[in-house]
Specification:
This protein is mostly helical. The protein contains 6 helices and 2 strands, in the order E-H-H-H-E-H-H-H. It is 77% helix and 4% strand. Strands 1-2 form a two-stranded antiparallel ribbon. The N and C termini lie far apart (50 Å).
Length: 151
């Protein structure tokens, strides 16, 4: 089915975030480096906060915006990609950061591809705010990693 409501976009983002947390948790079990484990714990916490924000947006957001329909398919390949990510046991925090950036970029690009398909200006603004929020959170994670490197 190609037609979806904006609420389904948020729901899919929650699913993507849950899959990302699962990847981090799987990675914790195999990684050998203590610093990488610290970073994974940090990422799990940040991802959970992101999910809480998305779920709160679904509950607290204007219902009319979430009922908006648009013509595009939900990108299930991205979910499959995240669910099949693996981490080498010798991976360090830099390698984890590369995966994190790659996943976040793919999610952001998907959202940006959805935005032009939405006709309602309020709904389009809501998606743009979401993109900005996710981008800011990604930047904070990168700065957090830089601070960890300083320690």
């Amino acid at each position: 089915m190609r037609y979806h409501q904006l609420s389904e976009v948020f729901g899919h983002l929650v699913t993507l975030n849950i899959a990302t947390v699962a990847f981090y948790e799987r990675s914790l079990k195999v990684t050998k480096q203590e610093r990488a484990k610290m970073f994974l714990h940090y990422l799990i916490e940040k991802q959970k906060v992101r999910n809480e924000y998305l779920m709160a947006s679904l509950v607290d957001g204007p219902i009319k915006i979430f009922e908006m329909w648009f013509d595009d398919k939900i990108d299930l390949q991205l979910l499959f990609y995240i669910e099949n990510l693996t981490l080498d046991p010798s991976a360090n925090s830099d390698e984890i950061l590369i995966i994190l950036l790659e996943v976040n970029e793919k999610i952001e690009m998907w959202l940006k591809s959805v935005s032009p398909l939405i006709i309602n200006s309020d709904a389009k603004e809501y998606i743009q705010d979401l993109i900005n929020y996710l981008h800011q959170k990604n930047q904070k994670i990168i700065h957090g990693v830089q601070r960890m490197d300083d320690l």
